[in-house]
């Protein structure tokens, strides 16, 4: 009798622990936690075992990490690139893409399917394609290498395919396998939010592919370009960021009802299919003006603004009409430098007063 009661209690404990585990998982899953690898990379703390410390990675992602430590570095680097590009693209906006140093990464912000969420998913997914593809080209990964399929072929215009073409197909496949894994039907059941994430991930990947371009090098006597070899190369990551930022401006609001496919909310355009050049979102963005920690909004108080500009960085827009403080800062620099024969440089020091404006 006593033994039986003991077993029951153990089962009870097991169920309790399991349900706590589930509650924790439900709270922090849903927001792609692999993005934390980018924050860890920014902090310089990615190591062999990082994946096992990140909560909320799904089985497929853990397997990739375990089987293939080199690819873990690529994923972290890709996420890092995505985060930095996001911060650069949004440096003048009310929401500036700032991150937290814990597993929430963007705070509670990504829980809502806004345009900003759409951009984050797309740019990080593109980041993984970009870094994995580069790693293939330099021979850092064992499963891929350069794309040599056209090597030696001559083009009608008189140049030759040579060198190492970036093998974007492997990067695309890898990013899809890893980045999309948490959204797959078996993980979450089909819901409109995971369809939104999947679509935006795909837009990010497609952008890398679309912006690939032919890059050439001239050979021949003193750069005469008698022989020209070309290869297909990756775009600079900031070009991808800029392209996706434009997609963000035109992001399509979705009708939230359907669980099976994406449909525009705008009635007049319902029948137009959504293309893979359009980011999609479900909810309207908050205005990001005022600090609201619960929703992960920092507010714009203290942000530096530009009094003479007209765009998003203008004090009018960035400070949301609250006005700004002006601070005069003395700026000292070396100036009017002269080169004296031979050999030293003499400079004067110049002082300028600079007005710095920050939002109230
Ligand atoms: C974003 O703005 C906040 C102030 O609102 C600032 O503390 C933070 O450093 C900024 N983040 C980035 C990445 O520029
Ligand atoms: C994450 O860190 C931020 C500060 O960087 C803090 O405000 C927030 O509560 C933390 N979230 C969790 C879940 O620890
Ligand atoms: C290749 O691997 C080395 C060593 O791990 C690393 O320093 C370098 O950044 C990697 N290069 C690319 C393009 O992934
Ligand atoms: C402010 O904006 C003006 C006009 O766009 C620009 O010329 C100027 O360099 C900007 N100032 C700063 C400090 O960024």
Structural class: alpha/beta
User: Would you list the SSEs in sequence order as H and E?
Assistant: HHHHHHEHHHEEHEEEHEE
Helical segment tally? 11
**Proportion in helices:** 25-40%
Taking pLDDT < 50 over at least 5 consecutive residues as the criterion, the unreliable ranges are 1-6, 20-30
Sheet-strand content, in percent, reads 15-25%
> What is the rounded Rg?
26 Å
As laid out across the biggest beta sheet, the strand order is: 1-3-2
Largest sheet: 3 strands, mixed
Tell me the overall shape.
globular
Number of extended strands: 8
Mean pLDDT: 87
Small-molecule binders: 2-acetamido-2-deoxy-beta-D-glucopyranose
User: Distance between termini?
Assistant: 71 Å
Number of domains: 1
How do the strands and helices of this protein lay out in sequence?
Elements: H1 2-28, H2 36-42, H3 50-53, H4 59-67, H5 69-89, H6 115-137, E1 160-161, H7 168-179, H8 185-188, H9 192-210, E2 213-219, E3 227-233, H10 237-249, E4 252-253, E5 280-281, E6 304-305, H11 315-318, E7 324-340, E8 344-359
Parallel strand pairs: 1-3, 4-5
Antiparallel strand pairs: 2-3, 6-8, 7-8
Helix pairs in contact: 2-5, 4-5, 5-6, 5-10, 6-7, 6-9, 6-10, 7-9
Bound molecules: 2-acetamido-2-deoxy-beta-D-glucopyranose (4 copies).
Transmembrane segments: 12-37
Function: Ligand for members of the frizzled family of seven transmembrane receptors.
Subcellular location: Secreted, Extracellular space, Extracellular matrix
């Amino acid at each position: 009798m006593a033994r039986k009661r003991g077993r029951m209690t153990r089962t009870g404990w097991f169920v309790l622990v399991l349900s706590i585990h589930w509650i924790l998982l439900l709270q922090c899953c849903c927001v792609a936690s692999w993005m934390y690898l980018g924050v860890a990379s920014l902090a310089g703390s990615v190591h062999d075992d990082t994946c096992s410390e990140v909560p909320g990675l799904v089985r497929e992602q853990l397997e990739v990490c375990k089987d293939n430590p080199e690819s873990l570095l690529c994923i972290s680097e890709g996420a890092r690139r995505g985060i930095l590009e996001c911060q650069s693209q949004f440096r003048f906006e009310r929401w500036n893409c700032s991150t937290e140093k814990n597993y929430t990464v963007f705070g509670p912000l990504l829980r809502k399917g806004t345009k900003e969420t759409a951009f984050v998913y797309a740019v990080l997914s593109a980041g993984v394609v970009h870094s994995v593809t580069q790693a293939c080209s330099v021979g850092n990964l064992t499963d891929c290498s350069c794309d040599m399929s056209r090597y030696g072929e001559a083009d009608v215009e008189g140049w030759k395919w040579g060198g190492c073409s970036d093998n974007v197909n492997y990067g695309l496949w890898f990013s899809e396998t890893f980045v999309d894994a948490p959204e797959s039907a078996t993980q979450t059941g089909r819901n409109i939010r995971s369809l939104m994430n999947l679509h935006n991930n795909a837009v990010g990947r497609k952008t890398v592919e679309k912006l690939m371009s032919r890059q050439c090098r001239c050979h021949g006597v003193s750069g005469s370009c008698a022989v020209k070899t070309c290869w297909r190369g990756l775009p600079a990551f900031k070009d991808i960021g800029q392209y996706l930022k434009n997609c963000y401006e035109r992001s399509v609001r979705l009708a939230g009802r359907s669980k099976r496919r994406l449909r525009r909310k705008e009635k007049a355009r319902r029948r137009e299919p959504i293309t893979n050049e359009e980011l999609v979102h479900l909810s309207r963005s908050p205005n990001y003006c005022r600090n609201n920690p619960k929703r992960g909004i920092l507010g714009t108080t203290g942000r530096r603004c530009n009094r003479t500009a007209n765009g998003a960085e203008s004090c009018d827009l960035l400070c949301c009409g609250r006005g700004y403080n002006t601070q005069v800062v003395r700026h000292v620099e070396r100036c009017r430098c002269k080169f004296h024969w031979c050999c030293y440089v003499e400079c004067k020091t110049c002082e300028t007063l600079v007005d710095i404006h920050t939002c109230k």
